[in-house]
């Protein structure tokens, strides 16, 4: 999920309300969408590389591991990674680039991308839950199933590391969710104001049109 704060739209919205500022330039909106397109492609390529690398490592561990419980844990983690990678591609594949060169389409694409970002964050919570559901019994098996000696140090390290990673992931997901909702609201407001301005301009044009005899 590719999530950098969007300062451009905030600046454009503030400029819209400023008395001395012109209407948001269509070129600026197009530039925003095009920059996001490049970032999305880079992010998806990175996600695919990480996902394929993780799948390769997990496949190798399944082959060399002889313990059925360990192999089952690696297989389940592989399914989670595969599902996350496929979801990312499905979620973003049809919004990578605009299909038409109009300001309206660029705005619609920006709104849709913000909505997809919120959907990606929601999926991230499910993915995190699935990973925890695999890691908790796996760590328990290794510590208390005779694979490793369950010393105080090993238990503190294993459970502490899992808790720290989960906390970091939760903080990232909460922050990404807030950003996605704010981004969606900002773009939607900008679209609404541009539509309202266009309607006002059309109405003014109709009023200024000379009456026919």
The amount of beta strand, in percent, is under 5%
* Through-space gap between termini: 61 Å
Number of helices: 5
Number of DSSP strands? Answer: 0
Sequence stretches where pLDDT stays below 50 over 5 or more residues: 1-5, 19-23
Rg for CA atoms: 25 Å
Mean pLDDT, as a whole number?
A: 81
Order of helices and strands: HHHHH
What would you call the structural class? mainly alpha
Rough outline:
elongated
Largest sheet: none
- Percent of residues in helices comes to over 70%
Write the layout of secondary structure elements.
Elements: H1 7-17, H2 26-64, H3 68-92, H4 103-144, H5 152-208
List keywords for this structure.
single chain; 213 residues; mainly alpha; 82% helix; 0% strand; elongated; disordered N terminus
Describe the structure.
The protein has helices at residues 7-17, 26-64, 68-92, 103-144, 152-208. The radius of gyration is 25 Å and the shape is elongated. α2 (26-64) packs antiparallel against α3 (68-92) and α2 packs parallel to α4 (103-144). The N and C termini lie far apart (61 Å). By secondary structure, the protein is mainly alpha-helical. The longest helix has 57 residues, at 152-208. The chain contains 5 helices and no strands.
């Amino acid at each position: 999920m590719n999530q950098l704060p969007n300062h451009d739209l905030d600046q454009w919205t503030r400029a819209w309300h400023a008395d001395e500022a012109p209407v948001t330039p269509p070129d600026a909106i197009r530039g925003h969408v095009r920059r996001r397109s490049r970032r999305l492609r880079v992010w998806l390529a990175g996600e695919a590389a990480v996902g394929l690398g993780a799948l390769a490592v997990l496949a190798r561990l399944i082959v060399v591991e002889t313990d059925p419980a360990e192999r089952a844990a690696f297989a389940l983690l592989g399914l989670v990674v595969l599902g996350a990678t496929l979801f990312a591609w499905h979620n973003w594949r049809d919004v990578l680039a605009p299909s038409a060169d109009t300001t309206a389409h660029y705005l619609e694409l920006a709104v849709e991308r913000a909505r997809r970002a919120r959907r990606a964050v929601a999926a991230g919570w499910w993915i995190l839950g699935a990973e925890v559901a695999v890691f908790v019994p796996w760590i328990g098996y290794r510590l208390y199933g005779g694979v490793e000696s369950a010393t105080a140090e090993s238990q503190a390290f294993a459970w502490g590391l899992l808790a720290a990673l989960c906390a970091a992931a939760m903080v990232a997901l909460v922050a990404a969710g807030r950003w996605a909702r704010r981004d969606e609201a900002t773009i939607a407001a900008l679209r609404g104001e541009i539509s309202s301005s266009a309607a006002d301009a059309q109405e003014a044009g109709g009023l200024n049109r000379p009456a026919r005899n």
